[in-house]
Amino acid sequence: MGKVFIDACFRKETPYTPIWLMRQAGRYLPQYKEVREKAGDFLTLCKNPELAAKVTLQPVEILGVDAAILFSDILVIPLEMGMDLSFQKGEGPVFKNPIRDMDDVDRLYDFPEERLTYVYETIKLVKKELPKDKALIGFSGAPWTLATYMIEGGSSKTFSTVKKMVYTDPDFVHALLIKLTEAIKAYLIKQIESGADAIQIFDSWAGVLEKSRFLDFSWEYLIDIAEFLKDRYPKVPIILFAKGVGGYLNEIKGRFDVFSVDWATPLEIAKEKLGKKYVLQGNLEPARLYSKEAVREGVEEIIEVMGTKPGHIFNLGHGMLPDVDFENAKYLVELVHDLTRR
Ligand code: CP3
């Protein structure tokens, strides 16, 4: 049996529009919280292949989504480059010694992909259990988004430290981005070789840059990674999620297969500008999952635009919020399957 999700990535006929949800594994699932408690902290869970595989599979079993996404985090690359990462309650990720100059870049370990063996182990375990008609999505953060966390030292509201570097010391930022790009390429190849059926690249903070700087500091590196992967594994679909770039859609070109539309970008505009070239993924506003009525209305609006022909993969327009009711997520998945069945 073919995989519905992979067929959809290549615009082939499928029995219905497939759906998965960004950040579908996590705290809104009682079964996740149980495993997380057993593991202790979040990074320990990421580093334990058996438990990580278990929570990767939970959304497939509980919600009926068409693809699993590897349970890990985008920040394991900087972690394995030697950075001191911790997750603090209420604060999100924190790096104790942020990267601020060329010496800091030089001190980062090369070849973090060689230390990320727990990720490849997780992929292999998931593939043993995953039903054959479901896909496993591997992923990485984009160079720009990883650089924002590494330079800021964690999450940021203004991105003023990393932006200051963009305008005052661009060579330093590019040196970091080049190092990250090489690591990401090698890491994603290893995920594919371990069994990942598709790859998504998360550029969650692409949209904090003005257009010219977005092109230089984010986009150039994204299309380079896509090109590198497609040359080697043409049958593995590449999905780009670059959040906040709805104003720059005319600039979007490159050798990836699926463009993931964030919730603030009107789907009809994305369809008009990109729908012929790329399969579109998205873009339900994640907060709609607080209400079944809001879910139904949002699903109907999206199907109205995208129809039920090949060219669309259903998803949220950003990650799942941690306090939604998982019953509403289950309802969303069933609704999309029902309303798009051909
Ligand atoms: O999608 C999935 O279910 C797979 C696993 C996954 C996680 N993070 C697990 C996680 C994926 C694909 C990510 C990607 C990720 N991580 C991104 C890009 C996507 C996006 O949302 O923009 C970013 C920016 C991160 C960095 C990160 N990790 C932050 C900012 C946080 C703290 C905020 C939060 O949600 O708590 C994390 C922690 C994190 N990553 C959790 C999970 C399940 C929560 C950890 C926990 O307490 O159990």
Question: What does this protein structure show overall?
Answer:
By secondary structure, the chain is of the alpha/beta class. The protein has a single domain, classed as TIM Barrel (Alpha-Beta Barrel), CATH 3.20.20. Helix content is 48%, strand content 13%. It is built from 14 helices and nine strands. It has helices at 4-9, 30-39, 42-46, 49-63, 76-80, 102-107, 117-129, 143-152, 160-168, 170-194, 211-232, 267-274, 292-306, 326-340, and strands at 67-69, 85-88, 92-95, 135-141, 198-203, 238-242, 258-260, 279-284, 312-316. The protein has a seven-stranded parallel sheet. It has a two-stranded antiparallel ribbon with strand order 2-3. Strand 8, helix 13 and strand 9 form a beta-alpha-beta unit. The radius of gyration is 19 Å and the shape is globular. The model has no long low-confidence stretch (mean pLDDT 97). Residues 22-27, 36, 42, 69, 71-75, 87, 92-93, 139, 155, 202, 204, 319 line the site of coproporphyrinogen III (CP3). Coproporphyrinogen III (CP3) is lined by residues 22-27, 36, 42, 69, 71-75, 87, 92-93, 139, 155, 202, 204, 319.
